């Protein structure tokens, strides 16, 4: 019998985390390792687009819970790579759900605010109808549907404006730009809820202690514009780089982005009692952690 990477690298554990090298995956591994034995793997070990690899990993691990943080996240790139985006975000999600169903293992699948078109004026509830715009958004919405129709024991957790230590995120881009430019121009007509991966991992741990399966939203409390977020980032870093607001049309992009993507945590709080900290508080803690990681 041929030995594969899955056979060699997957160990028996209580929790299997897919996409473990990403900014969210790293915090999921850290948080769940406090309570359980954890196996964390990335796409170099398990390509979730290959159903046999996923099925074998779930079988070998004997896991009690699967967290799927693996995703195609290149929003702009997806516009030219529809097949690649759907292979991971829809087909891959369905493969994971099938494997979990075959072994009666609960699944956590992470999704995005992009499944909404941004036309709302009050926070989106988790049961609101989706209306994705652009290939990335469509692929993630299709993945949510694939999971929900494939396996009953699922938690779909949508988040937004995600940032975590070691990630290529908005916070790091603003800080890097401020190091080399005398002035930054940042969009003020996109509004959302910046969300720290450490807090999302904590909320996920709380939710998975229940059997309240379904779709949830999980973002740090409160909301702001991209411009307001950037201003807070610079202030937290003690930087005095000038920053001016602009409209999104000043930065044309292939992929449409929701102008308003504030998500409501109400269903999450009702299900597990966990209240997400304010985004300002989360940013402060992230700045401390990133410095400690240097």
Topology (SSEs and partners):
Blueprint: H1 5-9, E1 15-18, H2 23-32, E2 38-41, H3 51-61, E3 65-68, H4 75-78, H5 82-102, E4 107-112, H6 135-150, E5 154-159, E6 162-163, H7 170-180, E7 183-187, E8 191-192, E9 195-196, H8 197-207, E10 214-217, E11 224-225, H9 226-236, E12 242-246, H10 266-272, H11 279-292
Helix pairs in contact: 2-8, 3-5, 5-6
Description:
The chain has a domain at 10-167 and 194-220 and 263-277: Rossmann fold (3-Layer(aba) Sandwich), CATH 3.40.50. α5 (82-102) packs parallel to α6 (135-150). α6 (135-150) links the parallel β4 (107-112) and β5. It has helices spanning 5-9, 23-32, 51-61, 75-78, 82-102, 135-150, 170-180, 197-207, 226-236, 266-272, 279-292; strands spanning 15-18, 38-41, 65-68, 107-112, 154-159, 162-163, 183-187, 191-192, 195-196, 214-217, 224-225, 242-246. The strands form four sheets. It has a six-stranded parallel beta sheet with strand order 2-1-3-4-5-10, sandwiched between helices. The chain has a two-stranded parallel sheet with strand order 6-9. The protein is an alpha/beta fold and 294 residues long. The protein is globular, with a radius of gyration of 19 Å. The model has no long low-confidence stretch (mean pLDDT 95). The chain is built from eleven helices and twelve strands. Helix content is 41%, strand content 16%. The chain starts with a helix and ends with a helix.
């Amino acid at each position: 019998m041929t030995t594969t990477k899955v056979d060699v690298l997957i160990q028996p554990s209580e929790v299997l985390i897919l996409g473990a090298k990403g900014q969210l995956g790293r915090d999921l591994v850290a948080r769940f390792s406090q309570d359980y034995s954890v196996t964390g793997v990335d796409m170099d070990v398990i390509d979730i687009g290959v159903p046999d690899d996923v099925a074998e990993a779930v079988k070998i691990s004997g896991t009690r819970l699967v967290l799927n943080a693996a995703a195609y996240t290149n929003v702009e790139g997806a516009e030219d790579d529809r097949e690649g985006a759907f292979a991971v975000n829809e087909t891959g999600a369905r493969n994971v759900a099938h494997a979990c169903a075959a072994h009666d293992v609960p699944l956590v699948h992470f999704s995005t605010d992009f499944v909404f078109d941004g036309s709302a004026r009050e926070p989106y509830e988790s049961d609101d109808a989706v209306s994705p715009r652009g290939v990335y958004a469509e692929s993630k919405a299709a993945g949510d549907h694939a999971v929900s129709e494939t396996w009953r024991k699922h938690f779909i957790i949508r988040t937004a404006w995600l940032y975590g230590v070691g990630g290529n995120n908005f916070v790091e881009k603003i800080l890097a730009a401020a190091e080399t430019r005398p002035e930054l121009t940042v969009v003020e007509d996109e509004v959302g809820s910046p969300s720290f991966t450490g807090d999302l991992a904590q909320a996920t741990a709380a939710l998975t202690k229940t059997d309240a399966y379904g779709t949830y939203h999980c973002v740090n409390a409160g909301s702001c514009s991209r411009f307001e977020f950037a201003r807070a980032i610079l202030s937290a870093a003690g930087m005095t780089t000038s920053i001016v607001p602009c409209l999104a049309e000043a930065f044309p992009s292939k992929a449409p982005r929701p102008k308003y993507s504030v998500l409501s945590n109400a269903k999450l709080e009702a299900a597990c009692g966990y209240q997400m900290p304010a985004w300002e508080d989360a940013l402060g803690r992230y700045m401390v952690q990133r410095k400690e990681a240097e």
